[in-house]
Design brief:
This protein has six helices and 16 strands. It is an alpha+beta fold and 319 residues long. It has one domain: L-amino peptidase D-ALA esterase/amidase. A hairpin with a 4-residue loop joins strand 1 and strand 2. Helix 4 crosses helix 5.
């Protein structure tokens, strides 16, 4: 067990990034098509192919998922993932060729690094081609390269975040994993201790509680749509498309345990849920554990982040 989402059999993860411009993307490639659902809770999302995942619609499985920086520009990275999968013969057979199904979600990282450089088709292709079953690198990589949190006191007083992953295996063989790029307007706390790990800072550089700033500024320092936490929870369970959506809904509880505030008008929080179809398990069990594993991944994303773009990280504040 690597302790990351690649412990779920059949899942491969690849990162690609521009460490100078501070942006990147993360691709989850399925060795075989997997059932997928999605739940969007934030009010400023940037997504692709999420309507397809509605349980009433026809296609019930996907070939990859793309998580990207770059705001809406970053959705272009999914086209590169499609190109790679087509070359590998992975996609939905439509009679005249194949169409890879690649849902995507983006986060806003234009405030960190070079806003003129965004994840491109080439970057998506590169991330997909590098996807492997090895332990997922965390921190300032992939979609977490330009991620930040704690922007309620202005971008200059924010902190660096990143991408994190976690997993859990049960005695019956059920494996649940999560990967998440944490880019919230609010602060991130450890759900076990209540400690604020990263968040908005005051003029002295100390972390302050987001609620206090909300009452003081009423979000006036943060433009809408400039945040968003995006991620994937996955298991090797046998589930339907409707059950996948329910699991995605329940998994959002993991964000609520660790990020405050969450699901605001300033975030576009989006979670995908995958089931690869090997183990029988109840939806309630999968959803509950998905929330716990996702919460662990959020904490790991913040703890693994390194200072970048003029922003300090947890490791530098906590020392």
């Amino acid at each position: 067990m690597s302790g990351t989402i690649t412990d779920v059999p059949g899942l491969l993860v690849g990162h690609a990034e521009d460490t100078d411009a501070l942006t990147g993307c993360t691709v989850i490639v399925l060795e075989k098509p997997a059932v997928c659902g999605v739940d969007v809770r934030g009010s400023a999302p940037g997504t692709r192919e999420t309507d397809l995942l509605d349980p009433v619609n026809m296609v019930d499985s996907v070939h990859a998922i793309c998580l990207s920086g770059g705001s809406a520009y970053g959705l272009d990275a999914a086209s590169g993932v499609m190109e790679y999968l087509e070359e590998k013969g992975m996609g939905l057979d439509v009679g005249f060729g194949i169409v890879p199904i690649v849902p995507a979600a983006v986060l806003f990282d234009l405030s960190v690094g070079n806003p003129r450089v965004r994840p491109s088709r080439e970057m998506g292709y590169r991330a997909a081609s590098q996807a492997s079953s090895e332990q997922v690198p965390e921190g300032n990589v992939g979609a977490g390269t330009g991620a930040s949190v704690g922007k309620l006191n202005g971008f200059s007083q924010a902190m660096k975040s990143g991408i994190g992953s976690s997993s859990r295996k049960l005695p019956n063989g059920l494996v649940i994993g999560a990967v998440v790029a944490v880019n919230a307007v609010g602060h991130v706390k450890d759900p076990e201790t209540g400690e604020i790990l990263a968040g908005p800072r005051n003029e002295a550089g100390a972390i302050v509680d987001s609620i206090e700033l909300m009452q003081k500024h009423a979000f006036s320092l943060t433009p809408p749509g400039t945040n968003t936490t995006i991620g994937v929870v996955a298991s090797n369970a046998v589930i339907t498309k409707a059950e996948a959506k329910k699991i995605a809904q329940m998994a959002h509880n993991g964000l609520a345990q660790t990020i405050w505030p969450i699901h605001t008008m300033f975030d576009g929080d989006t979670l995908f849920a995958l089931g690869t179809g090997q183990v029988a398990a109840s939806v309630d069990l999968i959803g509950t554990l998905s929330a716990e594993v996702l919460a662990e991944a959020v904490v790991r994303a913040v703890r693994a982040a390194k200072p970048a773009g003029g922003l300090p990280a947890h490791e530098s504040i906590s020392k």
